[in-house]
């Protein structure tokens, strides 16, 4: 995990259970004055020094989002006790979700090109660094994973699909292990300005950054952009048992749909979101009555949050108010392509620890979004089945189902 509330799963989870906010003011987009930006807060990974975690050329030659991905993958592999010299390299894949790719280097190079008017001085690694699959390729090369190597880019649902496609790769026998990563680092002058122009970001809490991301709450006024990465090791059960791996949870089901409706707004009746969740449950072989916890997409937008709750009520009916529901984005902001992987880690940890982290800033519940299971406090629950939702621009929906593993 690389997140605005901690680098490393332990640090992240401790902060999450405390309900700690990782949203802070953006100090500068030099040379642009910050008062020209309607939103001036974000979930930033502060004091990140790649040299503390990485060695050799990866410290300086790759984009920030790829550095995040490498650090998260390194931690996940160590936690899993997976030694690449003891497995078949062609049976280990890398599937990654990324929404924007190498935007830090991309913006820097295009700015320098137009300022200097010297096309012969563009960085020689510009192209392989900014491509969306650069991080997945780098992770595979660093760790010697020679199985399927894929990058999925479906905006905010990217790494949810990466988890789902990793599940499918193992189910269909393409791999025994998949290093599954979500990463984005796009708090850059141009990308941030674009989201501001789209009027998607919160603007009412520039003087109180920690209060800006408030899913399901009456005063929410847009999402807060974040950055970070999370990695999970997905593994077939026989392979995991053979090496006596620690198992946090079973990835049990997955669904991917398109609303075919609008580039940035979900259908307001919630039918398509409910359908996606139902398909994921069907794939997992569980019923709505068996679900204990939902890690909601919950970006803190006026329309999106209400639609997701409407869909939850449609599918779960009277059980909707008995579910534990939380919004990780209330703590870290919306990390775009990394959001699904971060939510997946939260699901696995909730199953493993029996604790559901609080939703921050849920002070005055919006009646259109109110669910009894949303809480500003830690909830101690026996979580046997968890669901993670992720919806992206381009009318894209994903849902992943996790189960407590029964040995």
TrEMBL record:
One GO term of the biological process aspect: fatty acid biosynthetic process
Domain Ketosynthase family 3 (KS3): 1-404
One function term, GO molecular function aspect: 3-oxoacyl-[acyl-carrier-protein] synthase activity
SMART domains noted in UniProt: PKS_KS (SM00825)
Enzyme class, first EC level, given as a word: transferase
Active site per the UniProt annotation: 156
Catalyzed reactions: (9Z)-hexadecenoyl-[ACP] + malonyl-[ACP] + H(+) = 3-oxo-(11Z)-octadecenoyl-[ACP] + holo-[ACP] + CO2; a fatty acyl-[ACP] + malonyl-[ACP] + H(+) = a 3-oxoacyl-[ACP] + holo-[ACP] + CO2
Gene3D superfamilies: 3.40.47.10
Pathway involvement of the protein, from the record: Lipid metabolism; fatty acid biosynthesis
Pfam families given in the database record: ketoacyl-synt, Ketoacyl-synt_C
Family (UniProt): Belongs to the thiolase-like superfamily. Beta-ketoacyl-ACP synthases family.
Alphabetical list of NCBIfam families matching this protein: fabF, PRK07314.1
Role played: Involved in the type II fatty acid elongation cycle. Catalyzes the elongation of a wide range of acyl-ACP by the addition of two carbons from malonyl-ACP to an acyl acceptor. Can efficiently catalyze the conversion of palmitoleoyl-ACP (cis-hexadec-9-enoyl-ACP) to cis-vaccenoyl-ACP (cis-octadec-11-enoyl-ACP), an essential step in the thermal regulation of fatty acid composition.
Name listed for the protein in its UniProt record: 3-oxoacyl-[acyl-carrier-protein] synthase 2
Organism: Nitrospira tepida
